[in-house]
Amino acid sequence: MPLLLVALVVLGLSGEVPRFLGESGLAAWILDSPGRQRIGTAPVYSREFALCGSGFRSTCVVDGDTFWLDGVKIRIADINTPEVSAPKCAAEAALGQRATERLAALLNDGPFEIVPGSRDEDRYGRKLRIVEREGRSLGAQLVAEGLAHTWGGYRQDWC
For the whole model, what pTM was predicted? Predict the structure, then answer.
């Protein structure tokens, strides 16, 4: 067996992609972590999401447009949902809670893909990603259900 292939197999036993290999190419196909597979070039995830509480966060839903996946905080790039941590009115608080619960249900509904947005991170260090299932944006589904606005570069009022 060629030395490079042996090294990839040994490194792959840890279930993590070494930093120098990045998240693309043949190495990412061989070294994908457990619970993740690939369709095309986008990773496919399937996890159980609860609502985030206080303390350590690994895989949970913060609000209708933000969640943690395996210790990485992700902001859904194509939508904006009502705030739950500092709502401006009771209507926003109630709608924000519904959006949060709905996002958790959508993420728990089966495998989903995470696709890079137009920027890698926002100013808070959250990864900006589009979340899709079978080519359809989960964000677009939240918009269709009245629980989100399409992201237009600014927050819209919910009150």
Answer: 0.74
pLDDT for 117 equals: 84
What distance lies between CA 131 and its chain's CA centroid?
Answer: 6
Q: Which residue matches tokens 């589904």?
A: 141
What is the 8-class DSSP label of residue 46?
-
What's the gap between Cα 118 and its chain centre?
Answer: 15
Q: Parallel, antiparallel, or unpaired for β 72-76 and 127-133?
A: parallel
Strand residues in 87-159 grouped as ranges (E): 112-121, 127-133, 136-137, 149-150
- 10 to 15, 20, 30: CA distances (angstroms): 10, 15, 11
pLDDT at 24: 38
User: What confidence score (pLDDT) does residue 39 get?
Assistant: 47
Residues with pLDDT less than 70, the chain:
1-41
Furthest-apart CA atoms within the chain: distance in Å = 64
Write b or e for each residue in 26-49: b if 16 or more Cβ atoms lie within 10 A of its Cβ, otherwise e: ebbeebbeeebeeeeeebbbebeb
Residue 96 CA to residue 7 CA, distance in Å, equals 48
